[in-house]
Design a protein that fits this description.
The complex is a heterodimer of chains A (252) and B (228). In chain A, 37% of the residues lie in helices and 25% in strands. Chain A is α/β, with parallel strands linked by helices and 252 residues long. Chain A has a domain of 174 residues: Rossmann fold, CATH 3.40.50.300. With 228 residues, chain B is mostly helical. Chain B has one domain: Up-down Bundle (Methane Monooxygenase Hydroxylase, Chain G, domain 1), CATH 1.20.58.220. Classes of the chains: A alpha/beta (252), B mainly alpha (228). Chains A and B meet through α8 and α10 of A and α3 of B.
Chain lengths: 252, 228
């Protein structure tokens, strides 16, 4: 089951640039939360702070509190532990090109020391079923490389890879922006299904996508979260004029 | 920097088209009342001729709104605006229908003696027309407060219609020979009461567009509070 994320006074910097400024928000468990905003507004930085990816950049730093359930991920845990509990899917699918589909999905588990063949088989099948790819690849799991799949299939394979380590939260940074409409629909259907088991945070530039998949939406601008509310409210009657200007396309 | 220039232009065109429709519907009601007052059947004819034009405009406006929904995927205030236009469009078409209904009654009344009836149809018409005008003014100016003031007028129109019903029912009982004229006047009063209802709907749509609050079916007092 997913767990909620509670963010308090989160600030982030790249060098001297203050990219996130005092973010306070609760992301409820087993809900999809969409993050929208113009390029450079801080939404991807925010997501990368949620699993401590942000600090992998040597000039980046973050302060504040991010609680995954009761655990403060900046105070109580190591980044590797965090990334097992919080999976991430990126804009462009990033398969390991020389690995088979099977090995791509199992790679996270193997990195964590799992070697039991039966456990690996079961996990690969469960993860590929959860990412709605199993039926399309089950006969070629070890024959085909991950890179031989279509873009949409690769992205679902990457989702399977993220799910294989059994996370509680799934972060998705523009997961469908490089995909055609059919593949995009499959990813969106997947998000809808995965919500029952995971807490999902999705960064998207596609406003309709945010409206379709997320219960809650946050609007970022210039490093600040200007508004966070139910998706219904944000897209029909936002409180803040800046949110309205952005979602109606009058921002600029 | 202004963005979405074409979309904004299309929204302006949609608004302009709806206002043309509004002008025609309002004129049809005024003409039907003028026909009642003067019993001039040539004015009734003008009302009948306006109906297909209003119907055509309704279809055009719906198509424009549908195109914008499909092509531009509007959000927030733009989405509420287009939804309001679609609803107002339907109400205006029905205002046009009420004008035709009144003109039909006036034409029937022409077959009978023009007698003094215990009902002030022109006064009721004045109030119902004022509601339509105010609601459209509120739409033109995106003025939710003005729209709220329309909601309060609906009770007055309803009350005048009730009085007309009672007076004319009593007259039918006392003077059965005047039944045809009384019945026609009664139906005209009812048509005008419906015009008031359509104006109320338009005002509620303006409030929805401007403030994002759905105040329908709440009664005037509650709707006014909700719209604040």
């Amino acid at each position: 089951m997913g767990v909620g994320i509670s963010v308090e006074h989160l600030n982030a910097w790249y060098g001297t640039t203050h990219t996130l400024q005092d973010i306070n928000v609760n992301l409820p468990a087993n809900h999809a939360t969409a993050l929208i905003g113009p390029s450079g507004c801080g939404k991807s930085t925010f997501v990368r702070c949620l699993n401590r990816m942000h600090e992998t950049n040597p000039i980046a730093r973050a302060t504040g509190s991010v609680k995954l359930g009761d655990m403060d991920i900046y105070a109580d845990a190591q980044p590797v532990q965090i990334r097992r509990r919080i999976g991430m899917v990126f804009q462009r699918p990033n398969p390991f090109p020389t690995m088979s589909i099977y090995d791509n999905v199992a790679s996270g588990l193997k990195l964590n020391g799992f070697r039991n063949r039966a456990v690996l088989d079961e996990t690969v099948e469960r993860s590929l079923k959860a990412s709605a790819l199993w039926e399309e690849v089950k006969d070629d799991l070890k024959k085909k490389s991950g890179a031989s799949l279509s873009g949409g299939q690769q992205q679902r394979m990457c989702i399977a890879r993220a799910l294989a380590v059994d996370p509680e939260v799934l972060l998705m940074d523009e997961p469908a922006s490089a995909l055609d409409p059919v593949s995009t629909s499959k990813i969106e259907d997947l998000i809808f299904q995965l919500k029952s088991q995971y807490t999902i945070v999705i960064v998207t530039h596609n406003m309709q996508q945010a409206a379709r998949v997320a219960e809650n939406t946050g609007f970022f601008l210039n490093g600040k979260m200007v508004e966070f509310d139910s998706t219904h409210k944000i897209f029909t009657n936002p409180k803040d004029k800046r949110t309205e200007d952005y979602i109606t396309g009058r921002f600029g | 920097m202004v963005t979405r220039i074409k979309f904004q232009q299309n929204l302006d065109d949609l608004k302009e088209r709806l206002l043309i429709m509004a002008g025609m519907a309002e004129q049809a009601i005024q003409r039907s009342i003028e026909a009642y007052r003067t019993r001039d059947l040539s004015i009734c004819e003008m009302v009948f001729q306006s109906e297909p034009v209003i119907n055509r405009l309704e279809r055009e406006i719906d198509q424009m709104a549908l195109d914008l929904l499909a092509m531009e995927q509007p959000m927030a205030i733009d989405l509420r605006f287009i939804l309001s236009v679609i609803r107002i469009n339907a109400d205006l078409e029905r205002v046009g229908d009420q004008a035709v209904n009144i003109a039909v009654r006036v034409r029937e009344m022409g077959a009978f003696a023009n007698i003094e009836l215990p009902v002030d149809i022109p006064k009721l018409a004045l109030l119902a027309s004022a509601m339509v005008r105010k609601s459209l003014q509120a739409f033109i100016e995106a003025d939710a407060e003005l729209a709220q003031s329309v909601l309060k007028l609906d009770d007055q129109v309803d009350e005048m219609n009730d009085v007309a019903f009672n007076e004319l029912s009593a007259l039918i009982k006392d003077r059965p020979d005047l039944t045809p004229q009384s019945l026609n006047a009664l139906i005209i009063a009812r048509n005008l009461e419906r015009v008031g209802d359509h104006a109320t709907n338009i005002a509620e749509d303006v409030i929805f567009w401007v403030r994002g609050k759905d105040v329908r079916h709440q009664g005037a007092a509650v709707s006014s509070q909700m719209a604040d």
